[in-house]
Write a structure and sequence with these properties.
Elements (H helix, E strand, L loop, with lengths): L3 H21 L57 E11 L8 E12 L7 E10 L2 E5 L13 E19 L7 E22 L2 E25 L2 E11 L1 E2 L7 E2 L2 E11 L1
Antiparallel strand pairs: 1-2, 1-11, 2-3, 3-5, 4-5, 5-6, 6-7, 7-8, 8-11, 9-10
Length: 263
């Protein structure tokens, strides 16, 4: 019969052996994926908005240069320099003499000179005006019937030829050009007077005259369409001493609106 103490000792050894075997076995591991892990990719940089974009053909297209403001028509290389202007307005003779207001029409022909960036223009123009006046004598004339006082109406038809130079002032803007002009004038005049004396008409009398004078103007060109709208203040003057219009002048201020064509 085996002693009880030996049985307990053997059981202890068996239990210790089993525990040691369990501890010696490796712990289970996760299954390994044979596919290699992808390499880390660098973040895609944001597109450079200032870099030139490629064209459909793959070529790099440089950014467009800023477009310059278009030159006024008279300064363009394809312009021949020829100028044709039409003007209409009113003439006011009151600041200078006895004549009154009138309609003014003018045709201008010019040529832009190829100097000073085409700022100079030579021109010749023809103008028509017919100022009028009326009045009465202050002293009786014994040759006239009745009270000897004469009342009269005067119309002076003027054909005016002007030749001169016009200078356009360059500005930062190409839309507008102020200008000044100076020249000489030739007045071809026909003066007509009708009147009554003492209540009796004494008919019509005509007188012709040709007088030299001068011309000056300030204005501006606003470039619209094939040419330019213009606004111009003119001063014209010539002395006049005739049989009907004695010791006076043809001075007048004209305000004209028109259009210039540049070819």
């Amino acid at each position: 019969m085996i002693p009880r103490s030996n049985i307990v000792f053997a059981s202890t050894l068996v239990w210790a052996g089993l525990a040691g075997s369990a501890a010696a076995q490796p712990a289970p591991t996760e299954p390994v994926d044979p596919t290699p892990a992808p390499e880390a990719q660098a973040p895609t940089p944001a597109p450079d908005t200032e870099a030139p974009a490629p064209s459909p053909s793959g070529e790099v297209v440089a950014p467009a240069e800023p477009v310059e403001t278009e030159l006024p028509v008279y300064q363009r290389p394809d312009n021949s320099g020829l100028v044709v202007g039409l003007k209409v307005g009113g003439g006011f003779s009151q600041p200078f003499g006895d004549l009154g207001s009138s309609f003014v029409g003018e045709l201008e022909l010019g040529y832009v000179l190829p100097v000073l960036d085409r700022a100079l223009q030579v021109f010749v123009s023809g103008q028509y005006s017919a100022p009028e006046t009326e009045g009465r004598t202050t002293e009786p004339d014994p040759r006239l019937p009745g009270d000897g006082v004469m009342t009269y109406d005067v119309t002076q038809r003027q054909a005016i030829v002007t030749a001169g130079l016009l200078y356009r002032l360059p500005l930062a803007t190409n839309l507008f050009r102020p200008y000044a002009a100076l020249g000489g004038r030739l007045y071809l005049m026909e003066t007509e007077v009708t009147g009554t004396g003492g209540g009796e008409p004494f008919g019509q009398n005509d007188e012709t005259a040709t007088e030299p004078g001068f011309y000056a103007a300030l204005g501006g060109d606003l470039f619209v369409g094939p040419g330019a709208l213009l606004l111009e203040l003119q001063l014209g003057y010539s002395p006049l001493d005739g049989f009907i219009m004695r010791d006076t002048n043809t001075g007048a201020l004209n305000l004209a609106l028109g259009y210039r064509f540049f070819f």
